[in-house]
Amino acid sequence: MTTKAYGAHAADQPLVPLDIERRAPGPRDVQIEIAYCGICHSDLHTVRSEWSGTRYPCVPGHEIVGEVSAVGREVGGFRVGDIVGVGCMVDSCRHCAACADGLEQYCTNGFVGTYNGRTQDPPGHTLGGYSQRIVVDERFVLRINHPKEQLAAVAPLLCAGITTWSPLRHWKVGPGSKVGIVGIGGLGHMGIKLARAMGAHVVAFTTSEHKRQDALALGASEVVVSRDAQAMARHAGSFDFILDTVAASHVLDAFTVLLKRDGTLCLVGVPEDPHPSPNVGALIFGRRSIAGSLIGGIRETQEMLDFCAGHGIVSDIELIPAQAINQAYERMLRSDVKYRFVIDGATFAA
User: Fold this and answer.
1) Which CATH number fits domain 2-159+296-347: 3.90.1300.10, 3.90.180.10, 2.60.220.30, 3.40.50.620?
2) Secondary structure class of 250 (helix, strand, coil)
3) Which pLDDT score is estimated for 271?
4) Would 215 disulfide with which of 54, 204, 240, 270, CB 3.0-4.6 Å?
5) pLDDT tens, 31-80?
6) Burial of 70 (C-beta count, 10 Å sphere; 0-12/13-18/19+)
């Protein structure tokens, strides 16, 4: 089936309108008409081949919300007309220990990304959500329960939401927890909202004083400008958990010393250049940990979506037409968005 999309033919070329082919729904497939697709910084990295292994043509997009338009004969969980989502994965091996535990993102044989993953469908790799429709195995389709007027702002939950939810849940953040969120961007603003809704005392860290009021409006109880050594020192040894969403190289020691004994600093951003080596003494003398976390499994992504629907949580977005994608990429590089661009799927065919 021919589908209108936006993608790039090479790393040094802009995204342009494309005609791509989608497979007909198989027995267990769900066909989705895409209403909204968020723009993630990973999209830009992949399109511009800043991470190795980009396959072209590259059609990005893994924050997808849409309506089911067809289902295979063996599909039991979805019907035509359902509002659904697709996140960062469309398949995994389904038989390794990670998959058996519902942690497909850690599939030891490698999960299949919603775009740029190997597939038997033409052109040999997956093509993502910057398109009119997509066909996905029902195991990797998620149910959306938010009201219709919130659907555009739900799209970033499929990546930014689950990327922050998964570590917050894994490290058992809840009432009584003191939690730090480093960075107030696409990921960080979701981390603040989720940690607050989970009952934690949330402290936002930013390098910019002008972001203070924004962080408080998002739900932070306190805001610390990390360049202020005295303000940082006042929080020494007091955090149960700190979620670091910053994807640029920076000194981690400034945050490890803020952890309590047995506290954890969790990284979810992958910097272009490595972080400076941390001071091991700060870890040893407090039994502190530096850890990492990758998106989330399908089961916990559904849990996150249900939690967000129940608490009225969505991302803060700017809705754009597909024709503005290249400009959005340049603005994203300047951090000129609060806090996520979302593409209106109705404009892919314009």
Assistant:
1) 3.90.180.10
2) coil
3) 85
4) 204
5) 999 999 999 999 999 999 988 899 999 999 999 999 999 999 999 999 99
6) middle
